[in-house]
Amino acid sequence: MLFTTTTTTSPLNSFGSPWPDLNDGLFYSDAVSTTSDSGLTLIHFYSSKYKNSAPLQGWLQRIHNGQITIDGEVVKEPKAILRDGMELVYHRLPWREPDAPYLLQVLYEDDDMIALNKPAGLQVLPGGLFQQRTVLMQLQWRASKGSSSLETQGSHPVPVHRLGRGTSGILLCAKTKVAKTSLAAFFAEGTSLIGDSSNANMEQSKRRKISKIYRALVNGILKQDKIIIKQPIGTTRYPGVAKGLYVASALGKPALSKVEVLERDSQLNQTLVQVEIESGRPHQIRIHLSFIGHPLLGDPLYDVGGQPMCFDSEHEDESFAEDGYKCISVCVAVDGLVFHLIIFFPPH
């Protein structure tokens, strides 16, 4: 359980539009190159290059549905031969995204930036099954309606840092390209200093323009009042996560978290902590707290040691669910060996 605290002395106002039942789908483009793709059939191209997206039968279904075009023309023949220079486009059909809140509280706003109170359950940027139900989309809708100062010369509403979908708290968003560049630089300066122990950089770190402080409820009782965690974070292969899953890894990038105990509950075997992160690695707080043996309460993914549990239903392969196929990842142990299985469920 992870959240940041938000306070304000002025009345809050909110904005947000209800989500449509279906999103607009997505379009993925490819260009046929002479060296590797020219001469292949359409079905061979997609089923081999994007085999993690769907099985062979799934790509056949998409082709027959007319979801793929070559140079702007719909092609339903799986054995069509590709030639150098052809432009391929796969249309991912519209789908109903998982439920997510849509109202956002405005904590502060001026001509350059807006500070929002992001609710848990709302994704910040498009990814996976969430392509429309995001903070970014609500900002863009608000700007297009001209309901606020977002509708100004050079308006460019965009979040400038990450907050996990399950995390609530303050989210800073830039309203102009100049503000985006400046705020992004402020966030990046802390991460760039991690791993450099020189006195000059340590002093510079103390004078950072932006600090990120979270509160988290973790399993177990932390004995120390204050802990500094310097465990690097990298990626590992994980079923259903194409780019790899972030985990505690000695070969990863430097990361630093400062943990302070706020309250211990021996009866429930839980500890409320405050965490200030000097870097901004993905899932950093979840990984670091689980690394020291105290995973976030209710975390379905990370176990003690900063490594993933064997099965996690939140990390299904989402890339083709909207076309009728579904995939889940399962861990099976046989004679001491652990095998990762990816199971495809065809359309009904």
Automatic annotation (TrEMBL):
Query: Where does the Pseudouridine synthase RsuA/RluA-like domain lie?
Result: 113-290
Question: Pfam families from the xrefs?
Answer: PseudoU_synth_2
The record's Gene Ontology biological-process terms are: enzyme-directed rRNA pseudouridine synthesis
Which chemical reaction does it catalyze? a uridine in RNA = a pseudouridine in RNA
Identification of the protein by name: Pseudouridine synthase RsuA/RluA-like domain-containing protein
Q: Which PROSITE patterns match?
A: PSI_RLU (PS01129)
- Database matches in InterPro entries: PsdUridine_synth_cat_dom_sf, PsdUridine_synth_RluA-like_CS, PsdUridine_synth_RsuA/RluA, RluA_PseudoU_synthase
In its UniProt entry, the species of origin is given as Salix brachista
**GO MF:** pseudouridine synthase activity; RNA binding
